[in-house]
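Why does this matter for the project? Reviewers at the last site visit asked to see concrete outputs rather than summary tables. In response, this paragraph embeds two records directly. Each consists of the residue sequence and, immediately after it, the corresponding structure tokens. Nothing has been edited or filtered.
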Amino acid sequence: MKVMRWLSVCLVVLLSGCIFDDGTYKVGETVPSLRTKTLSDVGGDLTRITTYRYPDKRMYQHSLDDALAKNKVILLAFATPGHCTQCDKHLQMLKAALNKYEDDVLFLHMDQYQNPEAFKAFIVIGDPWTFIIDGNQTIRLKRAGRMLLREVDIVLAGLIKENIAQKTQTQENALTESPSQALSLLEEKLEQKLEQPLEQPLEQKAG
């Protein structure tokens, strides 16, 4: 009787997406860099890179190693709609997030049938899984199962602000360490200011 109950539970888990937390790659750890399949690798044929019925080409433009090298915020989704009942709706939500954050965040979708090496590298068992990675290649969020748009929204908005602040601080530090570079930047800004047309006098505007 216990065996049958255990098998029933396993069947429910499998049908709902088969999610197990293996305990690897926790928040705060650096993600592995590896080459993953992109849309150009399959000649633009979306059926060879995802089992999702309504794929968005923007999710398959970058290999993971190339994306990490850009030092941008990354949303990495492991989802296989071909066998996962939750993955379809999860990817639909991510498309909405992509429309909002396309300029600041790289979205990558890994399908177990088409990018199995990514599942192996991250030791991901089951799906969907969502990893949000900052510009320093560090995991800032790891979540099993479907997520709500507002949950993704909060994390991405915060990381984008953090990333901008870090870049600004890096530039300021560089200018502090290099006075000549700081002077050059000031001269450039002054030249741009001088090149701007002067505002016309009020009597000329009226005439």
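We now turn to the second protein, recorded in exactly the same manner.
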Amino acid sequence: MLIESRRRIQLLEAAGRLFRASGFRAVTMEAIAAEAGVAKATLYNHFAEKSTVFAAVADHVTRMIADAMQSELGAQGHVDERLARGLIARHKLIFELVDGSPHARELMTARDSFARAPVEKIDQQMIAALAAVVHEDARLAKSAQEIANTLFFGAIGVCAKARSGEDVEAAVGRFVRPYLLGVRALASRGATAEASGGSEAPGRRAARSGRI
């Protein structure tokens, strides 16, 4: 079983290299087998066709990205820094494995065609992990889910034009840290309003006021 698992990882890593270098359409099953150093029959024993290889690669890559983010979220440190480091780790790996490819757009289209559901499921798990860290701050706990959603999707937006890992780190840092400071300030100011029943979720107020 361990040998089988290693062989599968070998195939997925070889296929991932080819997809990043050449895009989805240009890669063939023969090329994947050659890149992995196995016979075509071995590849077909694991995957029926190229689309199933790609779906497995997308799932494998997304899990790697989730693990990288979770490692930073689970480290020691202030909530804000752990959230920033977690999202930086996530997007640096996304850039390395997907966005840095000249075929990134084609790869994302293929992902939506062949692996949308499992990838979205893992994305929701990542958002839940962010929310769990946000919830550690009592001032933000009530709006933890909304704040986590804003962090997750906002980081995607600010990284759209990144051209290097350094760009990713700078963009995420400029977004996450001021956003959380703004949310926390609004939460503190809204404490009196909440007591009188007229509060609005701080994550929403921060987004509405342009502090993201």
